[in-house]
Write a structure and sequence with these properties.
Elements: H1 2-12, H2 18-21, H3 23-26, H4 29-32, E1 59-61, E2 64-66, E3 73-78, E4 83-89, H5 93-108, H6 117-133, H7 135-146, H8 150-172, E5 178-180, E6 186-194, E7 197-201, H9 207-220, E8 224-228, H10 235-246, E9 254-257, H11 261-269, E10 276-280, H12 283-295, E11 301-304, E12 310-313, H13 319-331, E13 343-347, H14 351-364, H15 383-398, E14 402-405, E15 420-423, E16 440-446, H16 449-457, E17 461-462, E18 464-468, H17 472-481, E19 486-489, E20 504-505, E21 508-509, H18 514-520, E22 522-530
Parallel strand pairs: 7-8, 7-10, 8-9, 10-11, 12-13, 12-18, 13-16, 15-16, 18-19
Antiparallel strand pairs: 1-2, 3-4, 5-6, 6-22, 11-21, 14-15, 17-20
Helix pairs in contact: 1-8, 5-11, 6-8, 6-10, 7-8, 7-10, 8-9, 13-14
Bound molecules: nicotinamide-adenine-dinucleotide.
GO molecular function: aldehyde dehydrogenase (NAD+) activity
Protein name: Aldehyde dehydrogenase 2B4
Pfam family, one: Aldedh
């Protein structure tokens, strides 16, 4: 367990630590009951039954679990098999109306924005404690619904959620405005007030982490919320939202709608009584919700969208460590990361060795049932993503890139895909431009710093980048030249609660986490009071 803990925290919260991550490679596979992709002769597994009960499948409106107004439900599926886990209430426009009305009332008349900031902080702290206490059940729901390894949920993602809630609990009583000096006889105050009812729409790749990034800062500022979860992963947010109520959150402050984008999501984005919209998802949908917000009441919108992030390996790199880091940067979470290092740029001097070693690492990748100990990669989220990834793999083959390893599905059941690598990838190939959102690494060759800066920036996206080098001068040049919202140097996927995260260009607008996220949930009000006498008598 200690070793598993080490690997999971290094996976997401720390910089590269090859020694901790490679513990999987030192243990006997048979003892762990695991299959490596490169050695799995037949990939057929009886799915392990998760040890959790599904208690919440209804919508959460005004503190109560309720059926959808239409009475409709939709199935949420197990990515390991494609079979139904549970039928979940399907919210649509009418349910969004009910939820927004509850949030409106909670904000306009309820105790939440009026209680002291310290009291709000204590409720968030209690919620964090409860999430921590129920880590096992929440992680089981998260992995069952999304297909991500249970160890990743339990040892990395749910702890990140807890940490983030505590971070924002710490902010609740430190949010304040300013008194500024005025030219005339005026007392000038700048007040920071909660923005009101926040509409939030989240994706399926990190269901609860995305929930936390949105709910934490909004609650710390005293807002009320209607959040729409992704249709692929509705379960964990319902469980956790109940814990917030157990922690003392007043009814109506946090409403959770399960349902589909064009119905429930669009209703939320275009609702006249929603004061702010926060969206995470694809760039294409980001454009849609921005338009809906503009056409309705011009609510301010923050957008966290897609990416095609460069992972740049300079020639001075220790190749073994670079291979491990680049592997992690792409394959983590089945390759379903907005910030995945999905364009691996490698200096030509070390290129061939890097490709060979990357292939060996991909062949050692442990793919299998996410509930099996030691598994690094589970199935993709659903049939649609599975087919989309296989289409991109075919496009890669057809476009003349060299298929180094993988290139097909794994097994005959569920949505497992072989860890796949293409080398000799050119910038104009579709696989080097589009977000594949799957376990497909594309390796490109470069010759010098100016060239790699130009090519790395030649993307419609600008979410993140990784660098691997010991040369400080080169690192300094690159960190300033790359047009991205986050740069990880000799590490990747470090998601500290205090770090603002967001994109340049078509990767989004605004930032989440850190202080920046608070700004998106506050209104700024200037108050000028005439003084009988000049200021500062
Ligand atoms: N930048 C980030 O922080 C970040 C984080 C995670 C994921 N992402 C991005 O999310 C994408 C993957 O997620 P996805 O496939 O769920 O994206 P998606 O855009 O299909 O869906 C995201 C959410 O939007 C909803 N939605 C869909 N159509 C809608 C509409 N017409 N109106 C309102 N809501 C609608 C969906 O139901 C879902 O809840 C990737 O592009 C990934 O890069 C970005």
């Amino acid at each position: 367990m200690a070793a598993a803990k080490r690997i999971a925290s290094s996976l997401i919260a720390r910089s590269l630590s090859t020694s901790s991550r490679s513990f999987l490679l030192r243990r006997g596979d048979a003892a762990l009951g695991i299959q490596r992709f490169g050695t799995a002769a037949a990939f057929e597994e009886q799915p392990i039954k998760p040890s959790v009960q599904i208690n919440h499948t209804q919508l959460l409106i005004n503190g109560n679990f309720v059926d959808s107004a239409s009475g409709k439900t939709f199935p949420t599926l197990d990515p390991r098999t494609g079979e139904v886990i549970a039928h979940v209430a399907e919210g649509d426009a009418e349910d969004v109306n009910r939820a927004v009305a509850a949030a409106r009332k909670a904000f306009d008349e309820g105790p939440w924005p009026r209680m002291t900031a310290y009291e709000r902080s204590r409720i968030l702290l209690r919620a964090a404690d409860l999430i921590e206490k129920h880590n096992d059940e929440i992680s089981a729901l998260e992995s069952w619904d999304s297909g991500k390894p249970y160890e990743q949920s339990a040892l990395a993602e749910i702890p990140l959620v807890v940490r983030l809630m505590r971070y924002y609990a710490g902010w609740a009583d430190k949010i304040h405005g300013l008194v500024v000096p005025a030219d005339g006889p005026h007392h000038v105050q700048v007040l920071h007030e909660p923005i009101g009812v926040a509409g939030q729409i989240i994706p399926w790749n990190f269901p609860l982490v995305m929930f936390a990034w949105k709910v934490g800062p909004a609650l710390a500022c005293g807002n009320a919320i209607v959040i729409k979860t992704a249709e692929q992963t509705p379960l964990s947010a319902l469980y956790v939202a109940r814990l917030f109520h157990e922690a003392g959150l007043p009814d109506g402050v946090l409403n959770v709608i399960s349902g589909f984008g064009p119905t429930a999501g669009a209703a939320l984005a275009s609702h006249m009584d929603v004061d702010k919209l926060a969206f995470t998802g694809s760039t294409a949908t980001g454009k849609v919700v921005l338009e809906l917000a503009a056409r309705s009441n011009l609510k301010p919108v923050t957008l966290e969208l897609g990416g095609k992030s460069p992972m740049i390996i300079l020639e001075d790199a220790d190749i073994d460590n670079a291979v491990e880091l680049a592997h992690f940067a792409l394959f983590f979470n089945q390759g379903q990361c907005c910030c995945a290092g999905s364009r691996t740029f490698v200096h030509e001097r070390i290129y061939d060795e890097f490709v060979e070693k990357s292939k060996a690492r991909a062949l050692r990748r442990v793919v299998g049932d996410p509930f099996r100990k030691g598994v690094e990669q589970g199935p993709q989220i659903d049939n649609e993503q599975f087919n989309k990834i296989l289409r991109y793999i075919k496009l890669g083959k057809d476009s003349g890139a060299s298929l180094v390893t993988g290139g097909d599905r794994l097994g005959s059941k569920g949505f497992y895909i072989q860890p796949t690598i293409f080398s000799d990838v050119q910038d104009d190939m579709v696989i080097a431009q589009d977000e594949i959102f799957g376990p497909v690494q594309t390796i490109l060759k470069f010759n010098n710093l100016d060239e790699v800066i130009r090519r790395a920036n030649a993307s419609r996206y600008g979410l993140a980048a990784g660098l691997f080098t010991n040369n400080m001068d080169h690192a300094n040049t690159l960190m300033r030249a790359l047009k991205v919202g986050t740069i990880w140097i000799n590490c990747f996927d470090v998601f500290d609660a205090a770090l603002p995260f967001g994109g340049f260009k078509m990767s989004g607008q605004g930032r989440e986490k850190g202080i920046d996220s608070l700004k998106a949930y506050l209104q700024v009000k200037s108050v000028v009071t005439a003084l009988k006498n000049p200021a500062w008598l």
